[in-house]
Amino acid sequence: MEATSGRKIEGGVFRSVAAFLVHSNLFISVAATGVALSTTLLAGHSPEFLPLFIVFAATLFVYSLNRLTDIEEDVRNVPSRAAFIGRYGRLFFLAGVSLYLLAVGGAFVLGLPGAPFLVLPVVVAALYSLFRVKQLLLVKNLIVGLSWGIIPLGVGFYYGAVFVPGILVPFGFFSVMLTVAAAVFDIKDIEGDRAGGIRTVPIVFGPKATRVGALAVTVAAGVGLVGLVAVGVVPRRFLVLLGFLAYVAAYIPFATEDRGPLFYGFVIDGEHVFLTLLVLATEALGAGT
């Protein structure tokens, strides 16, 4: 009885911590930072603090703004998140703005290449959160995908090598896979999006077709990746991305309307954390060749 009670307490603590990380956007910001770190290592560069901080700050800013502008939809789709944002949303938005301004200011003071492109998060935030372009079918998904795809390009600008396979392949890979993830994510919001007149892939084509399409794109991405490695466009260490694709393929069948926000915000967004750990492990084991 005591053991069962202990497990319940531990489970409750884990869910509470996970919910805090997800609703505060700290987890998604860490995940985006993981994309920058994974790209840096795959491209053969040594990680540095500043570009990782810039990605974290920009992500926290963009997502915190979006949570505030989407709070009415969240009341229908994710009431637990809406309650959290209603209480703490402005605090995390202020933190996001402050960190983002610090990152932008630091980039300009240091004269970093590509510093002017740091205004892109503001453009993305305006398009997505203020101008409501997400009401257009697929536009939201493409914006999300390209926004995450820009992260590898930012890494390339920082290290002075943008138009090279080690950067362009992650750009294409993450753009495609994050577009897929965004479409799968919309499955949980079907009821609220339909009520709000938002046309998403799951609403237009249905949840099952969305999952099948997502799996098909995931398989195609894997085939394309293996092909690029086989012909020598990128080195063998890029095959670690197959682990990422396996993770994606594993969660897609379970992406249903009845899954809670922790499945979507922790398991799905956790794909980037999983990849980062895989990349770090291969580097530590000397398998990244």
UniProtKB/TrEMBL annotation:
Magnesium recorded as keyword: no
UniProt superkingdom: Archaea
InterPro entries listed in its UniProt record: Prenyltransferase_related, UbiA_prenyltransferase, UbiA_sf
Protein localization: Cell membrane
Alphabetized GO MF terms: transferase activity, transferring alkyl or aryl (other than methyl) groups
Keywords: Membrane, Transmembrane, Transmembrane helix
Membrane topology: Multi-pass membrane protein
Ranges annotated as spanning the membrane: 12-37, 49-68, 88-108, 114-131, 143-161, 167-185, 212-232, 238-255, 262-281
Pfam families documented for this protein: UbiA
GO cellular component labels: plasma membrane
Name of the featured protein: UbiA family prenyltransferase
Species of origin: Natronomonas aquatica
Organism placement in taxonomy: Archaea, Methanobacteriati, Methanobacteriota, Stenosarchaea group, Halobacteria
